[in-house]
Amino acid sequence: AGDETVRHGFPYQPTALAFDPVQKILAIGSRSGGVRILGRPGVDCYCQHESGAAVLQLQFLINEGALVTACADDTLHLWNLRQRRPAVLHSLKFNRERITFCHLPFQSKWLYVGTERGNTHIVNIESFILSGYVIMWNKAIELSTKTHPGPVVHLSDSPKDEGKLLIGFESGTIVQWDLRGKKADFRMHYDEAIHSVGWHHEGKQFMCSHSDGSLTMWNLRNTTRPFQVTFPHGKVQKDGRKESCKPILKVEYKTSRNSEPFIIFSGGLSYDKAGRRPTLTIMHGKAITVLEMDYPIVEFMALCETPYNNEVQEPYAVVVLLEKDLIVVDLTQSNFPVFENPYPMDIHESPVTCTAYFAECPPDIIPILYSIGAKHKKTGYSQKEWPISGGTWTLVTLQMLYKLKTSKVFEKLKPGEGRAAELVEEDPFAIQMVSWCPQSRIFCVVGISAHIILYRFSKYDANTQIVSLEVRLQCESEDVISPSENENNPCFSEPGSHSPQPHHQHPASPGAGTPEGVKDSIPLKDRMVRVPPGYQAELVIQLLWVDGEPPQQITSLDINSAYGLLAFGNCNGLAVVDYLQKTILLCMSTLDLYGAADPYQRLTRSPRRNRQSTSGLTELSDNQQSIDMERSKSPTSGNLLTHTHTHRHTHCQCIVRENSFSRSRSSSVSSIDRDTKEAITTLQFAESYGRKNDPVPTPCLWVGTSLGVVLVIPMSIPTDQEERMEEPVTIGPSGAVLMLKGSVLRFGFLDLMGALIQSPYEVWRDLNAPENPDRPRKRKLVNFSPSSSQDTCGEGHLAVVCSERQAKVFLMPSQSCLFVHNITESSFVLRADVVSVCNSVCLACFCANGHIMTISLPSLRPMMDINYLPLTDMRIARTFCFTNGGQALYLSSPTEIQRITYSQEMCDNLQEMLGELFTPIETPEAQNRGFLKGFFGGNANTFDREELFGEASAGKASRSLAQHIPGQAGMEGMKVAASGVVGDLARARIALDERGQRLGELEDRTALMMTSAETFSKHAHELMLKCKDKKWYQF
After folding, report:
1. Residue 484: pLDDT above 70?
2. pTM passes above 0.85
3. Which of 397, 403, 614, 914 is most buried, by the most CB atoms less than 10 A from its CB?
4. Rounded to whole angstroms, how far apart are CA atoms 873 and 555?
5. Rounded to an integer, what distance in angstroms lies between the CA atom of residue 951 and that of residue 942?
């Protein structure tokens, strides 16, 4: 359990790139030691080096199903890609030298490794042991040279003769080393530092790129100086001198049968062009094309038809790895268009602030979102198929369906306009929360500027005017209400008759404050606008500025399509909006929601209470008799009014769980004073019981606060469609008051049999569809009332409430607490969700200390506790979410989504769901070189590396130079891994056995599993003996 399934998005802080031209798979290494392997769309595999050291270089064993990685801790690793989850077969750690460059010739089992000291070592890929053959720097360079040539920056074998190795040193020295003769054939010197080298396929000449922005061409016939020096971007100035240019960090020199060679390089622009974007230059004959990139280039690589370096290369594309993007350019068309990237790599297009994860969506929603999203795609891409096409499809994929820009609802801000934009450090439109009802397709977005946008989905475009509601949800330090103000306010003194007055839609709700308060909010588009098909904004709710002070950010939100209501809260109070009638039903401070039933007795401290006024957001008139009467039982008083007043505002010192990981909160009554602000931390609409004596469930709003208090507010909603649009929704005074330790995070509702009760919803209907007189569009509601399915087991339902520290299960309507479980004492819960796993329901929790826990429902028995993440940062805390089927996800880096499973059943199925990276493909044959050419073309084919580098001739390498480490994927680790996996499996299966199982059955299962563990271990041992002498690629 707690198994990482797959990672989506762009590899964060990429460092290296490699491509297998036969398998057609791409590998990207990162600074944190991650490796992403990509194939055809849907083939995406993530591996991680245990050391976490940055990946410096990647080398595929072409068409062998293996990959060599060189890391910044001077360790080489060999990864086996012939299994669904790649693993390290061998590692080799260099102790005395730092690795700077690696080269593995095609179809060779000897890897050349260049070091910072200028030496070149040779590693056997099969055994991962160093050869005794070493090319020392002082032997490679001329003895007369007095200075060290610098680190090795290039290694390659000559296309004409594999027995010749070209070594490039940083200082500008190039040596061709005769491997058989163990001597240098020639040495070349250039005054500028070398960054890269590229051969012509015939092996008679090569090109170098340098730190002064120059390209030099060298011919093997004359090694004294380059026969050509060019500064592709350096113009000659008036005084005759060349412009100084930036280094050309890499050059590739690729030949083509039917045209001039391609020379592709990065960098080399002149220094005087300030602010120029990073560039990739493609020189093809006399044509020079400069491609400007949005981000710095990390690495690029030309994709060629042949894996052989001595054949015409025929480049057809170039892969460009940028700091925050991956681009593939089509070289077969003269305008060099880019391919459309099929991977979801632009998750980070703007920084991700929140996530929501939905499993088991209605089947029609995905195709419709995809078809509408596809209409907004950019054009001008290459028409050819994506060239990275290896591997076989995996069932665990991520596909971008649809994008929505919420800023389009607002007017464009001019520089310096709107104080909201100035005060918010982030983008004023940054999204804090989302709420989506897949059935009704209603979507809500909460923005950082304390605004909420409600969207409806339509397949048709429309002319629409967005309705705006403005809400004042502010707190103040003292009661400053004059009697004259009081007289003008209606009072509801009879319980059950609380029908708030509808609010004006433009420009603000009553008592919204001064015009100054209005203009500080981000201005909305207040005209008719044409909106395309897809999600269309219908309503915008903005919290108002008061006396120049910005509103507090929204901390909780819930929307219910069946009720047509939206509720939200912050550290000051709660508001409920009827989005069908576009009215504000309730706008009240948290303290006033309690009426007379404040568990912390804060109401009694203020003598001004008796003047029928509140220090909150709204007027509240309590019948004194009902206050006294209700003190001893559940409250039925606390009448709600909707008129607000402009009061002096003081900044709330509110505690919101998103903001900090370390805080101390005491829930004891003595520490809660009159001024303690209580944030609304969670909200949920449900069919429930507002009071103990309610005979039937009614629509209710469950409210959870930062002080661990749960309030249940009953509502009366007209059921007839016409009445619902005309008659007001009435909200009763708060009913049940329940208590927990710590801030309330999540509600869940079960029937008396323990099955999950879904929230009621409205079935989606397209409001912009053409009218059909035969089928009038009526609201179709689906209700999961707890009483409708339970005639046999009596009335009522179970309410699951989870806070930062504990979980409780209450029986409703009696409000009696059936089960309590203290989840954590030393940490606190960041995220909790009631989810269905393996045909049962459980509470899944993610703690700040990185633990993932599952707790059975309704019995609240701990089932699983894994220390999944050793370190939790704010990004993970903000984005972690669970869903059904034992799945969860979070943002593992600013650009990547990590999906995990915490269900053993899902873990078992996952192996079948993952695709294959390696597919058996015949290696293309080398082109027939012809009899005469083969006869006279030197003895390249007779070069035997084994004879040169093997232990028999080269001897053993110094033991202190490098240390061989067998990988966990090797046969050595199989037996240990097998017993460990079975142990984990047994523990997880036992833990995940849902409620009601007898202990005897568990013991039988345990015994059975121990037997199967022994059998598994035995088979693993047999397999190890069987495979002991096989080569790694035969597994």
Report:
1. no
2. no
3. 614
4. 20
5. 20
